[in-house]
Amino acid sequence: MNMNFNQLAMLQQIKSGMDRFRINHPKFPLFLKAVSQEALTEGALIEINVTTPEGKAYCSNIRLKSDDMELIETLKNMNTP
User: Alpha helices, DSSP H only, in the chain?
Assistant: First the structure.
């Protein structure tokens, strides 16, 4: 796959942002690692809650289906050297 300069620059920007995120939130990658190794199985419920500084809350959840597991495995493998 050939990438143009803009795509390479965008990937570098994403990497830089991820590096800053890891520095700012060092426990979150450890949480994601534990979840990906132990909890992401068919039937697992993933719930996301977001509360704004003003106190407005948003919540959503999904239950993993067998069709989702291929994508989960692909994402796991992207993080493996």
Answer: 5-24, 27-38, 66-78
Please give the helix or strand (H or E) that residue 60 lies within, else none: strand 57-63
Distance CA 51, CA 59 (A): 9
CA nearest to 45, candidates 61, 69, 26, 27: 61
Q: Which amino acid is at 54?
A: E
Contact predicate 66/42, CB 8 Å: yes
For 58, the 3-state DSSP assignment is strand
d(C-alpha 74, C-alpha 36), whole Å? 12
Which pLDDT value is given to residue 15?
92
pLDDT digits (tens, 9 = 90+) for 5-21: 888 899 999 999 999 99
Helix axes of 27-38 and 5-24: crossing angle, nearest 10 degrees:
100
